[in-house]
Amino acid sequence: MKIGIASDHAGYELKEEILKIMKEEGYDMVDYGTKSPDRVNYPDFGRKLGEGVASKEVDCGIAICGTGIGISIAANKVHGVRAAVCSEPVSAKLSKEHNDANIIAFGARIVGIEMAKAIVEAWLNAKFQGGRHVDRVSLLDNM
Ligand code: RB5
């Protein structure tokens, strides 16, 4: 599975930690930046990741900013993206099971590394449940 990851400056340090762990675990990672702690604008990086997911350059993505909110709003502007901001693993699991979230977002000023790892793991291990959720996801994709 190919996974994209992106952050702004506020999420940079956490992105680097998650990226290292995911690579060690054998995931094929694409880093859409930012590549340093210098101040940047989160819409640019949410968009880059969103476009990577929508074009199927990567299968799914991880987005990190200060809160997870700004970068997920940006990613969600890209057609075909379903980015979910989650601060704990239960929502992360449900975001895949019910919403087929193809980007998981969280905030480096909100969650620490252990919670971030638990969120990513819950989301990656969950499966879209289909059934009654199919039509709803399709309505989202056709908005
Ligand atoms: C950057 O200071 C901060 O506004 C950004 O990382 C994010 O939290 C926005 O939603």
Taking the alpha carbons of the first and last residues, their distance comes to 28 Å
Identify the strand order in the major beta sheet. Answer: 2-1-3-5-4
Strand-pairing-aware structural class:
alpha/beta
Residue windows where pLDDT falls under 50 for at least 5 positions = none
Q: Largest sheet, described in full? A: 5 strands, parallel
- Hetero compounds: D-ribose
Q: Which overall shape is indicated by the principal axes computed on the Cα atoms?
A: globular
What is the β-strand count? Answer: 5
Helical amount: 40-55%
Radius of gyration: 14 Å
Number of helices in the DSSP assignment: 6
Task: Output the helix-strand order.
Answer: EHEHEHEHEHH
Portion in strands: 15-25%
Write down the overall mean pLDDT: 98
Oligomeric nature of the chains: single chain
Report on the structure:
With 143 residues, the chain is α/β, with parallel strands linked by helices. The protein is built from six helices and five strands; from the N terminus they run E-H-E-H-E-H-E-H-E-H-H. The chain has helices at 12-24, 42-54, 69-76, 89-97, 113-125, 132-141, and strands spanning 2-7, 28-31, 60-65, 83-85, 103-107. A five-stranded parallel sheet has the order 2-1-3-5-4, with helices on both faces. Strand 1, helix 1 and strand 2 form a beta-alpha-beta unit. The longest helix has 13 residues, at 12-24. The structure holds D-ribose (RB5).
Which keywords apply here?
5-stranded parallel sheet; 143 residues; binds D-ribose; alpha/beta; globular; 5 strands; 6 helices
